[in-house]
Structure formats: structure tokens, C-alpha cells
Amino acid sequence: MKKGKKVSSATQSLRQRAEQEISRKMPGASGMLSEIESLKLTHELEVYQVELEMQNDELRNAIDIAHLEEEKFRALSIISPVGIYITDKSGACTYVNEAWCRMADLTFQEAMGNGWINGVFPEDRGRIFETWEKYINTGLDWNWEYRFQDKNGKITWVYGIAAPIRNSDSVVIGYIGNNFDITSRKHSEDLLKESEEKYRILFNNSLFAVMLSAPDGKIMTANPAACRMFGRTEEEICKIGRDGLIDSSDTRLSEALKHRSLTGTFQGELTFLRKDGSKFPVELSTNIFKNSEGKFFTSMILIDTTDRKKTEAILTKSEANLRSLIENTTGSIWSIDRKFRLIDANSGFYESFKKGTGQVLKPDDNVLENLPAQLKKEWRTYYRKGLSGQSFNIQTYTIPPFELLCMRYSFNPIKMKDGKVIGLSVIGQNITELKKAEELLRDLTKHLEEARENERTRIAHDLHDDLGQKLTALIMDISWLKSRIGVQTPLVESKIKQMVQLLNMTIESVQKISYGLRPSILDDLGLRSAIEWQVREYNKSTGISCSVSFNYRESDIDSGYSLLIFRLVQEALTNVTRHSEATDVSIKFNIIA
Known about the structure:
Layout: H1 2-25, H2 35-79, E1 83-88, E2 93-96, H3 98-104, H4 108-111, H5 122-138, E3 142-149, E4 155-166, E5 172-181, H6 183-205, E6 209-213, E7 219-222, H7 224-230, H8 234-240, H9 253-263, E8 265-273, E9 279-290, E10 296-304, H10 306-327, E11 332-337, E12 342-345, H11 347-357, H12 373-387, E13 392-397, E14 406-415, E15 421-430, H13 432-484, H14 490-517, H15 520-525, H16 527-542, E16 545-551, H17 559-579, E17 584-590
Parallel strand pairs: 16-17
Antiparallel strand pairs: 1-2, 1-5, 3-4, 4-5, 6-7, 6-10, 8-9, 9-10, 11-12, 11-15, 13-14, 14-15
Helix pairs in contact: 1-2, 13-14, 16-17
């Protein structure tokens, strides 16, 4: 455009000069042009004409070039991923490309003038409008990061720059600028900040000692846990470096450094030194890494294993004691996981399993395999019940191919602290001999009870038949003497009466003792009549209302149990009298099949 203006000025100058010469030489002036002057004027006009045509061609070429450049700008503006905008000299928008419209979620028409500010995030509008006005007024550089917000609330971060457009006289006639979408970069920066913050929190609050160093042993930083571990400040740790913290006499050190140098990493145990010079074991994890500048660094994570070593020693001893206890326990002890796989067992279990199935069971083997179908079904039921969280005991007899034994099994679930069941422990005891002893004891008890009852029966019969008859005869003798004695003094008569009363009371006591030892009514009339008699006597002696009902036939009761049932009723009524304040007692008899 600047070149075109020069052509236009030259053309005007040529025309003015030609018009002046023609006017001066034309008839009516001071004289006629000579032939030579006419030829000269004609030649000059021809020269001027040629120059004018050449300049017109240049002008047309300049216009074509301008049109081409304008078309290039338009095409570039359309395909550019960068937002492009143009304003007039007052800063009012006159053009935006499609990329800018997408960023601001505004149409071309909506962005014109000062409408572009409506696409800016509300919190950024005041700051951006103020800086843009300042830029227009001062001509200072303009570059800012700010946000667009679309109609759905989506945020787009942009980096905006602008430069003035000047004419040929260097006068500002407008401004052109670009908006670069930096949303991804901002997101990455936020993630980086978040990561750095997480690292800082983790570094400062880690229970493990963490240090950053160079491969040569120079320490750059140490977290608070490392300071507590070594009893030093971070400054002291950085000053003495790795060589001041590690025990150089540890024979494993050279091999650890060699391994890290070759592989870039090392994990293992080494001995370190506290500030007071005491040595302690550390589980070390270290890696060599390269930063963005290509420099190598070393990360170190250290765990003081002093307490763990002590705990391991205690656990080892405890496990040895437990293993000894398990192995020396009579019976079978084993544990399984939730898939019925064997975890551990004592030799008693292995031997009994091998003896019964002919199979050698090993840890991780399924304890249900190789069992007979019926036995497998039963034990799967037991295992599932225990793995559901229930503790219980069973008593059962083994079936072929196992030796016939009476066994007692105790099932106890293995639980985590949160109550989750992870396995099941089982203890099996052979109680065959115990059962035999119990049978013998029951037989002996029954024999002793029978002997005792027989003795009671004999004593009761003796008291009732012998002593009772003799006391009755004694009363009759006293009555006979009384009738043979003449006139009796009141004292003698009273004495004889007292003797008769005493004998009657003695007979009554003998009868009670006899019934207590062995109520004859039980043998004569049966259990029901004996209990009804006992209830009546209880009512008389205690004043407590007592009733009894029977829901069975007399023939349903084995005579061998009649005395036992009668004794239970007697003991129950005695306990009611001694230990309760009952005013009413009800006894009901039912036979449970």
C-alpha cells in the first residue's frame, strides 16, 4: 500500500508538468511553439506516458499482492488452532477467527466491539479489561494468562499476547493478538503442584526415614523421621553424608554399593550408626534416578528393624514352644484355610490320616480329598460351619477305613482383628478309653446305688416290721399293766399316759424313717401313688400348696427308674423349701420320646 501511494503522487506530478507546458506553448500565449519545441514537448509527453503506464502496472501488482496476502491471512486464520483477534485503535474488536470463537464460546457477531469481554471468566473480567485499557493507552507490552468460560461452565485457560498495527507513518491504527489454549498445561501444572504437595506431605510425615543424595554419598535433604532415627538435625546429616551414617565395617556394604551401581537399585539390610555411635540394623531401599537436567540422584528409604528383630526372636521362640506343645499333645491338631487346604498340623494328625486313608497329606493339600464319600460329606459340613464363624464341639465315632474309635473334636475359627474368618483350627482327642471308663463308672454307680437302695429297703423293712411291731407290743403291754394296777394316783396315771404318747410318737417316727428310706407304698401301689402321698405329706409339713399331674401310663415307666424319679421329686421339694419363698408348687410328668 505504501508503494501504491508513491505511484499516485508521481502521476499527478507528470500531469501537472505536461499541462503547464501545453498551456505555456498553446496559441494565444506569448507565441507559437517552434517545431523543435513541439517535438521536444511530444517526446517528454511520450516519456511521461511510458512512466505512467509502468507505475500503473506496479500499482496493479501491489494490489494483487495485497489481495494475495489478505487471502493467505484469511486461510491461515481459519485453520489456525490459535485464537486470532484484531481491534481498532480504541481497542474495540473488529475481527476474531473460528478458534477464538470456540475458546470463548461466542459467535463472531457477539465478540465485536467490547462484546468479547462476555466470554471471559467472570472473576477475570475486571483485571483483563483494566490491563487491556492500560495497554491501549500506554502502548506497553500486553501478555496475560486468563480464563474463558463457555455457557456450560467449562473453563478454558488461555495465554494472550497483542501487538499494535501501524500505518506507513508509524501511527497506530489497531491491534492484533493471539490466544493460545494452555488448559492442558495448566492442568499439568495443577497436577504437578498436587504431586509436589503430596510428596512434601509424604516426605515430612513419613514414618520411614527418607533421604535424597548423590551417588557419591553427598546428602541433599533428610526428612524428620531420618533425623529422629539418627538423633541428628538435617543440617548435621547433610554435613557428614552417607559415610558418616553407615557402618563402614559392615562386610555387606561394598557388595550393596556394587549391586546398586550395576542395576541402579538395592534392597537389603545394612548396619547404620546413631549420633551416640550405637549400631542398629536398617532395611534399606535405594534407587538411582536422573532428573530433567540429566543429573543423577539417589533416593533412600530406611526402616529401623531393631524392634522387629527383637519381635522376630520372641516369635521364633514362641513358635518353637508352641510347636513343641502341639507335637507333645496327645491327639490330632490341624488348621485349614477357607478352601479346605491344610495350613499346618502335628504329627498325630499326619499319622492318623495316613493310617486311615493310606495317603500322605502335605501342607496346601485338600484335607477332604481321599476321604470316603460319606465321611467327606460329614466333614465338609463341619468345616463349613466352623468357617462361618461358629465355635463348636462334636463327639462321634470313626467309620471305616479308620479304626473304630470314639473321638471328640473342637472347632474354632481363625479370625483377623476385624473379625474376618481366614481359616479353621481343629483339635481331635481320642476319648475311647475315657468312654469305657465312663461306662464302668456308670455301672459301678448303678451297682452302688442298687446296693444302697437294697440296704435302705432292708433297714426300712426291719424298722417297719421288727421295731414297729415291738413298739406296738410295748404299747399293748403298758395298756395291760394299766388295767391290772389298782387305784392309780394322778402322777402314775399321767406317767403311763406320757409313756403311751411317747411310744406312739416313736412308732410314727419309725414309720417316717422307714418311708424315707424306702416307701413301702412305692413297692405296694407304684410310682404315681407314692408321689401323690409325698405331695400330701409335703402340704401337711410345709403349708405350701403343691399339686401334681401325670401324662403317662404307669406301665410306661420302667420299675428300675421308679425309685430314681421318686428321689428326684423328694430332692426337688426339699430345695423349694430351703431356697425359695414359693407359696405354690406344681409338678407335671410327661414322657419325652
